[in-house]
Amino acid sequence: MTTPITRVLARRVWDSRGRPTVEAEVHTARGAGRAIAPAGASTGSGEARELRDGGRRLRGLDVGQAVANANGPIAQALKGLPVEDQSAIDQAMITLDGTANKGRLGANSIVAVSLAAAQAAAQAAGVPLWQHLARERAAGTAPRLPLPEVQIFGGGAHAGARVDLQDFLLVAPGARSFTEAIEWTAEVYHAAGARMAARGSVYGVADEGGWWPDFNGNEAAIETLTRAIEDTGLSAPGQVAIALDVAATQFFDGHHYSLKLDGRKLDREAFGDLLASWINAYPIVSVEDPFAENDVEGMRAFTARCGARVQIVGDDFLVTDATRIREAARIGCCNAALLKPNQIGTVSETLAAWRAAQAEGWGAIVSARSGETEDVSIVHLAVGWGVPQLKVGSFARSERMAKWNEALRIEEALGAGAAPFPAPGIYPRAA
What we know:
Layout lengths: L4 E10 L5 E9 L2 E6 L27 H15 L7 H12 L9 H19 L3 H8 L10 E8 L12 E5 L6 H21 L19 H15 L8 E5 L11 E3 L4 E3 L1 H14 L2 E5 L7 H11 L4 E4 L7 H10 L4 E4 L1 H4 L2 H13 L3 E5 L9 H9 L3 E6 L3 H17 L17
Parallel strand pairs: 4-13, 6-9, 9-10, 10-11, 11-12, 12-13
Antiparallel strand pairs: 1-2, 2-3, 4-5, 5-6, 7-8
Helix pairs in contact: 1-2, 1-3, 2-3, 3-4, 4-12, 5-6, 7-8, 9-11, 12-13
């Protein structure tokens, strides 16, 4: 028995950075689903494209046309389709858009409707979204509580480029439950804040809730996080460890990596040496986008050098694209993929990227964006599909905590029915 879509309704709402975004509702006779499109501050050139109105009003960022597209041609194309058929819903929007990057209708309108359709299908089935996805066994894995990856210090585009690297994060590979992982994260987050306060440098938080950086070098942030871990009495990297999001595209000029905070301009080889030295000196177990999105040789060399020891994640390098993941694996780049639904544009394409990563024996991380909202859909995607890691920002700001808290509720609901926590072998160095 299928449930046809009766109505699609979209509106303008606001994200955590005070910017307009698209909220969509998908209605059926058996209930409705709702979702909100996030937006990224740091975006890869290969990402699906948001549609913004331009002009002077709201700094050109309004989404009036994207909302109109959802309420008009998208709503007409989806009316009558079975809400349970996510692939057909998403393909209808992709075909209607007709561009390679969803730029005509807007990836922000498309992803909001795609996520809302998934929520509506769960409503029609009378189950939470994670359970709807798990019932389908779409990814061939049991439901899994993902290991949280939590920003402690923000940098790069998330903090006015005061530090060149974008994120200094904590993971807890030794935790025995999601609850314990979150507790350990809380201890380290507040220990890091206490260290910043002791040196008179607590100036608030960055876009995603991490402590606003005030360091005299990029390595100083890694060292401070290491000392904060020690302050809690937790062991590293066995219980907790450090993950870096380098977001190297932002400071690559085509030939050199310019670390302004350090006053250094490094070629590919020297930058790889620097990253490797940090891995040797600190309890780092994961490095995201260590080289620029177009620096294939740098990514390949770094994967060959460090991929057996740490997780090497492609974000801008892969843009949640199954084809790019398969090609990267073929040429020896990365060993894990970041999965951002709005980066590729639909739920189905995000799932295809996860399937591609699984087929290559890779890890994966479902990820939020810097411009987030109260929407918790990505938590359900991670759990229902059995993706082993989840990254939603820091341990502050309600749009972040809403997602961590939703995962705690799901953990309680799952009880003993989840796959083992954490997923084995995520970080070879922490085993």
